[in-house]
Each structure stands twice: as structure tokens, then as C-alpha cells.
Amino acid sequence: MRLRRFTYLNTSLLLLWAGFVYAQAESQTQDEVNSCISCHLEVGDELADPVEGMKEDVHTRQGLSCADCHGGDPKAGLDGDMEASMDPGKGYIGIPKRTDIPQFCGRCHSNPNYMRRFNPRVATDQLDRYRTSVHGQRLAKGDTKVATCIDCHGVHGVRGAKDSRSSVYPLNIPETCGKCHADAEHMEGYNIPTDQSEKYKTSVHGIALLEKGDQAAPACNDCHGNHGASPPGAPSVAFICGQCHLNNSELFLKSPHRVAFDEMGLPECETCHGNHGIQHPSDQMLSTGDSGVCIECHEEDSKGYITAVAMHQQIISLENSIQLADSVVSKAERAGMQVSESKFQLHDADDALIKSRTMVHSLSVTKIQEVSKTGLDLAEGALQAGYAALDEVQFRRKGLSISLIFILFLAFGVYLKIREVDQKHPPK
Amino acid sequence: MKKNNASDESRGQRMMAWVSERYDLSAIEYLIKKKEVPIHKHSIWYYFGGITLFFFMVQVGTGILLLLYYRPTAEAAFESVQFIMTEVRFGWLIRSVHSWAANLMVFAAFIHLFSVFFMKSYRRPRELTWVSGVFLLLLAMGFGFSGYLLPWNELAFFATKVGTEIVAVVPVIGGFLLKFLRGGEDVTGATLTRFFGFHVAVLPMITTLLLTFHLWVIQKQGMSTPPSIERKQQKPKSMPFVPNFLLRDLLGWILALGALAAIAAIFPWELGVKADPFAPAPAGIRPEWFFVFMFQTLKVIPAKVLFMDGEVLGVLGFGLAGLALILVPFLDKKAALGQKGKLFTIAGIVALLFIIIMTLISYTMPQNF
């Protein structure tokens, strides 16, 4: 028995020791093979920063080493000869020039065969797209102030775009782009505004993304493209907005505004809705009041002006009908009535209202009338059902009152009978 | 007019004679002529048994009417109740009355139980009246539990899920009980169909038998006089059961009907939203109010008490309390001998306070079950 216990103890200690030795050997092997790490850590200060940064880098996680990007032979420096590992003859590149960075990263990222090893679905057209972008075109002309890969993605500490700590994670993109584009000093000479970032934060898109965390809302790259450039330079802004606002875009492209805007050189969607500071559209945009946008171009009594007034009336009429029906149905609901059917109708009427608003982009009063009529009919149905429910409430109240009078009358009759019976058969 | 009354009377007498000729009605005749109800300062509590019975009859009537339209499947249950409430003439009233009367019945049954307990009416020779009464209360709670799920709305679905989960902690047979109640591992359409079966067939059948027994022994043995009254006066005053007490009972029923109609019409029972088994449990799920004190107790018991799982301890505790409640007539020896004894009265007060406090805590401190 004792011998068996002794054997168990020995085996356990042996396994523990073996594990310890293996862990040590593993870490030693990595340092020994990669002299870049050992030397850079030894020298310290800013030369040690890349080593520290690489601990969390997506490339390290995929098993890449310093030499995979910078070239050279880390093994050659194991005996302390740094120059041997950084020998250009062994492919050492060192720090690439700023103008060479896209090509530097593109060596791997543009190679589908190589990239397939890490992720079969990864895109490999970043470099080609970058070259078509304003950033890429300016860099090719020697402008080193423009963004290259590392300005957006970082260097020695690059994280995947799905990592919430990444500079290119959707919620962090406005901040990343704003590093340059909101810096007036940096942007000097480019003749473009530097308030996009601030405007975006107050826009309907910015609030949805940054405050509500809704990642379906667009960040800078969703309209301007990631590596390539869309506007400026895309054939139509509606194409860009239409990526999300498909129906509005299609209706606009078939509308008379498309031709007119193109002839006048106006930037389509942006003319009415604005760009970076875009706000939630309101029905008042169609009105002839201060918030109206149609009247900015269309003079009073002109065809466009009359169309705008007619569209506005249609939308407002449907909106008011829904509001009235909703208030009546809600009142009936508060009174305890079952109004789920009417609520479904109102829900469908709301859908019709949204469709009518979308149909505004066609500029066709007839089409808006067609869609809004469905909504008006539904709202009217819900309204009548709401009134009927309120009538039913009154009926129930009256019915209850009459029943209670009858019940009390009956109770009183029984009470009189009890008195009579008590007199006839008194308690013993 | 007099002539008419006379002819009615003779017609009634002729009918009675016709029936008596064929069947022995002497027991009923004795009941009508001889049964007396004691009159004392606690007589008011005698009416709660009758009121409970009245609400039960309302339940049977409205339940049968609901059965005409209700469909017990997960796909159609909610819609059928919605149909009853919106399309069927006076369907809203029938459903509302059924739901309210169910709660009022359990409430009246609790009052009846505690009044009988404090008046020590369970004493010899009425032990079995008490035992059958406790079982009837448990059956009423079973009606409440099974009926709660039938509209297949969100709150009922999750409350049933939590409620049936508790059964699983019963040692040895917990797992079997859970599957038996749910008709599977989870609360599904099979649970609904099963609960419907319990609610409209199994429970009514058992209740009818037990209720008949309960009423029969009450009529046979008459009402009990509390020991405190017995000690003060040799024989308290009494009134004939028919018609004096019966008319008073009738008055109570009529008033209960008025209250029920008013509550059902002014506060119609809500339907809520249809149950979605894949949706997360919404906030504020609660079982029926008469189960709340037990749920609250299980929540406050620590996860581990000595070597036992807290929840298992709670369930076993309630099981033992239920058993003790059934056996009260046999445990209270002093009452059986007509002697003074405060132990059971104090235990009853403690139990009542416990139920009230636990229920109040649960309702005043919002929490998810």
C-alpha cells in the first residue's frame, strides 16, 4: 500500500517537472530562434516598443515573425552579431519608406495564394483599391502626409477589424479618420473642410453608431469606401446612399430630379439631405415653411412648388389620420378593451406612411396617393374599431349599472324575506 | 291570488308525494326540518364555505361556456381566447368572470380554511371534513396553476416554466414529476394540452367526488360550535338551516355575484401577448398570487443550508407543512378533548403572517422569478 502511494507521488512529481522543463525550453527556443526579440528588448527604449506591441498583433497570432515582414535572418544573430541578421543580402528591408508602405504590406495582402492560408475568404484587392483612392494617388505623387496602411491600421499592434479594440472597428472608425481629417493643421493646403468629424457625431448616422452602438449605421468608410475611394469620383451619390437606402435611390434615379440635378451639377441626395451632418428627415422638409427644402429651388406657384405642397398634404393627412386613430384605440385599450386587431391595422398604416415618405423621391403625387390611400383606409378602419370599442365600454358600464341595480334589488328582497322568516322561526 | 297559491302548494305537495312514493327522502326531510345552525359572535365565518361553493359553481358554468370556443393547442390557444374576448357575444364577460371568480374562490377558500382552523372546527368528529377541505383547497390551487397556462400568453408560459422547474427538486421522483407535468423536457404545446386535460377533466372529477363528500359530512354533522363559545354557554342559540340560514347564504351569494360582476366589468382580465418559447423571459413574471409566498420563500432560502440544497429544503419544508395541515385534527390532542390550547392558534397566526408578509415582500420588491 505504502509502495503504491510512493509510486503515485513520484510519478506526479516527475510529470510536474517535465511540464516545467518543457515550458522553459519552449520560451528559450522562441528567443533563441528570433534574435530580433532578444536584441530589441536588450537595447530597450523605443527599439523595444515594436516587440511589446507585437504581443497582441494579429500577425503574431497567426504565427508570423519579424522577418516575415522586415526580412533578414534572425538565426544569424544568435551569436550576438546583429549585422549578420540584418544583412540586406539575406533580404533585410528594415523600416520601409513611407511611400513604400502600401507595397510593403501588399507583398502578402495582395497575394491570394498566400492569404488563403490564413483565411480563405479574405480580400486581397486592398492595394489595387488603395491606388485608385485619393490617398493612394497623392502618395504616388510623393505626398507623404496622406494616409497609408499604418495610419489607419496601426503598426506593431495591428488588430483584426472585428476586434472592438481595433482602430478600424466600426465604432472607432470616425475617430481614426478624424485623426487627420479633423486636424486643421494637418489638412492645410488640401482645401477640404475639417468639420466632417464633428458634424458626423451630431448626424443621424453618427448618433446611431456612436451613441446607440448600432453597427448597421454607416461610419466614414461605408460611404467613402475602405481602401478605394467612392465619392468624390463615383458617378452618382445616389449609388452610394443607395447601398443602404435602396428604394429611395431607385426612385430618385428614375425621377425628374436626377436629370435636373446632373445638369445643374448638384450632388443628388446631398442637395436636400446634406452630407456629414445629415439629420433624420422630417415631413417639414416638404413644407413651405422655414424647414422646407423644396422651396429653396422652386419658386411659389411653380410646378415643383405645387407638387411639393401636394406631397406634403398627402403625407400630413395620413400622419394625422394615424395619430387620431391611435389616440382613440389607445383610449379604448386603457378602458380595458381588447384592440389588438386595430393595433395591427395601425401598424400596417405606419408601414404605408413610411412607403409614402419613400415615394416622395419619385416626385409623383399620384404614386404617393396610391400608397397613402392604403394607409388612410387602414387608419380609418382602426378609428372606427376604436370608436366601436369605446361605445362598447359605455354599453358595458350601462349594463353593469342595470345589473347591479337588479342584484341589489334582489338582495334587498332576500333581506326582507330573512326578516319575515326570522319572525316566523325565531332563534331558539 | 290566494287560490293560485293554494293550487301551487297542492301541486308542489303532489310532486313531493309522487317522488316520496318512489324514493326515501326522509334524510332530506330531516335536514330541512331538524338541522340547526349555532348563533354566536363568530357565526359570520360560517358563510365563507358557501361563498367558496358559489364561486366554484360560477367556475363550472363559465368554464363550460369557454369550452365551446377554446382550443387547447399552442398554435390556437391564444387566438381562441382572443376570439372569445373580441368576437363572441359577452365572451369578454365570461372570460373575465371565470378568471376573477377563480381568484376569489381561492381567496374565499383560504378565509374558510383559516376560520375553520381558528374556531377549531376540525375537532372530533369532524376530522374528515377538515381533511377533505384541505384537499379541496389543494385542488383549487391545482385548478389555478393549470388554468393559468391555458391562454398561452407570455407571463403564463414563463411562470409555468419556473413553477414546474421547482417540482424537479423533489428528491428521487422530481425528474419524473417534471416530465409528467410538462409532457416532455420543456414547456411546450404538449404541456398545454396536458394542463387542459387536468383542468377540465381530471381535477373536476376528483373535486366533484371530494366536494360531494365534504358537503355530505357537513350536512350530516352540522356546524361546529367553537370551544370558547361552548365553554361560556352550555348550548348557544341556533336558527333553522332551512330557511333562515339558507336565505342568509343566498344573500351572501347575491352580494358576491354583484361584486364579481362589478370587478369583471370594470377590470377586465387582460390577455397579454402570445407566448414565444424562443423569446427571453420578460421582467415581472409572477405565478398566481396564491403561490407567490412559496416562490418568495424559495428565493430567500440560502443556496446551501448545512449539507442540504436550499431549494430542496424549501420544497421539503412546504411538503411537510402541507402534511401537517392535513393532519391537524389528529395532532391537536387538546382540541380533540375540548381543552384549552394555544399552541395551534399561535401556529396558525404565524403561518398566516408568514403568508401575508412573504406575499407583500414579493409584490413590493419587484423581481424576476
Which terms summarize this structure?
heterodimer, A: 428 residues, Butyryl-CoA Dehydrogenase, subunit A, domain 3, 23 helices, elongated, B: 369 residues, mainly alpha, Cytochrome Bc1 Complex, Chain C, two-stranded antiparallel ribbon, two-stranded antiparallel sheet, 16 helices, 3% strand
Describe what you observe in this structure:
The complex is a heterodimer of chains A (428) and B (369). Chain A has 428 residues and is mainly alpha-helical. Among the domains of chain A are: 100-225, no CATH class; 230-280, no CATH class; 303-424, Butyryl-CoA Dehydrogenase, subunit A, domain 3. Chain A has 23 helices and no strands. Residues 13-32 of chain A have low confidence and may be disordered. Chain B has 369 residues and is mainly α. Chain B has a single domain (44-223, 230-364), classed as Cytochrome Bc1 Complex, Chain C, CATH 1.20.810.10. Chain B has 16 helices and four strands. In chain B, the strands form two sheets. Chain B has a two-stranded antiparallel ribbon with strand order 1-2. A two-stranded antiparallel ribbon of chain B has the order 3-4.
